[in-house]
Amino acid sequence: MIGNLLDLKPNKVSVDLTQYSTVWMGDTGIGKTTTFMKFLKELVPDKDPLFLEFEDRFQNIPGIMAVKIDTMADLKSVIGQLRNPEFKKRFSCIVIDTLDKFEESCERYVLENRDAEILKDVGAFGEGSLRFKSALRNIGIIQSLGYTVHFIAQSTHSKDFDTKKESDTLKLNKNTFSYCREAAYLVGYMYREKDERFITFKKTDKYPDLKDTFNLPDKINVKDLKSTWVKAVEDLGGDFTTKEKTIDKATPVEDFDAIKARGVELGGILASNGHLAEATAVLQRNLGLDDNGHVKMFDTLRDTQLDLTKVIVMELEDLIKKYKIKA
Asked: What's the Cα-to-Cα distance from 122 to each of 71, 101, 127, 131, 200, rounded to whole Å?
């Protein structure tokens, strides 16, 4: 629920780096998982990042906290366990490793359950793409539990036949690309020079998929990334910088039954004060009519319709205020 706009304060930018979702891309075998794990541990030394692994190469990484995901049922099982608040005390964030293998898993899930070979064969009107996007949204479910979600992705190298220009891009379809890149604050390309790992977030012709929200330097040694990133946030925020966490995608827990009961109570108050018609009009406008042409009542609402229930209650409260009824 939106608070009083008169209490609105200017936005501040936070140096709490744990809240910013990122994508790290790079060539196979460059050490993305190990390097990223060490960086995340630097951010939160007393907690471990949890890696959701969609391939087996993590098995040779000492100390990694990881679970292998082979099926959509595996992923749903993990999400179910992450709902337990105790896991927030142990894991600092969630890492999808790798994003392209996660994409393959989502696509395979849709195709196998629809006995099809490509997404276009799954029903009419783009049903395959819709079901694929629905599978991708499991990432959003994890975020709604209050976890920052990061991604590791393989890059693909290409060379334009005509212009001879070379580029390194994310090996993803447009749905996965847009869904994850738009939500990320940084998309970087990691590479190795003389046994050191460097990363760049600057979008160029060579790296067209990168993203830099904080105006970071063109080239950063990963060992210096934390301090460099904090300084960039401070330079960006100036007087509007804070150490407090400012981003929380966790879905607030609200009592549906209590909100629904409040709506029933308000409807009764309006009816007893001679405004049944206006209260009924609110229900009809929001809920419509049943098969018999009668206005649907509050008992038809389900807990999945929390937002709709809140809107109806707010409109009933407006009627109470309009007619200056004590409630």
From this structure: 19, 21, 6, 9, 39
What does the DSSP assignment read for 57-72?
GGGGSTT--EEE--SH
Q: How far apart are CA 198 and CA 258, in angstroms?
A: 53
CATH of 12-242, one of 2.80.10, 1.20.58, 3.40.50, 2.60.40: 3.40.50
Task: Return the number of other C-beta atoms located less than 10 Å from residue 11's C-beta.
Answer: 9
What residues does each domain of the chain span? 12-242, 256-322
For residue 16, give the amino acid letter: D
pLDDT at 117: 64
Q: How far apart are CA 278 and CA 271, in angstroms?
A: 9
Residue 218 buriedness (CB in 10 A; 0-12 / 13-18 / 19+): exposed
Percent of the chain with pLDDT over 70: 97
Residue 302: how many other CB atoms lie within 10 Å: 10
Q: Where are the beta strands (DSSP E) in the chain?
A: 13-14, 22-26, 48-53, 66-68, 91-97, 149-159, 166-170, 186-193, 196-200, 211-212, 220-221, 241-242
pTM: 0.83
- Name 166's bridge partners: 159
**Euclidean distance between CA atoms 58 and 62, whole angstroms:** 9
pLDDT at 197: 96
Q: Is the pLDDT of residue 119 over 80?
A: no
Residue 124 reports pLDDT greater than 70: no
Could you read off the pLDDT of 143-195 as tens digits, one per residue? 999 999 999 999 988 887 787 788 888 888 888 888 888 889 999 999 999 88
Which residues share a beta bridge with 67? Answer: 52
What is the chain's mean pLDDT, rounded? 91
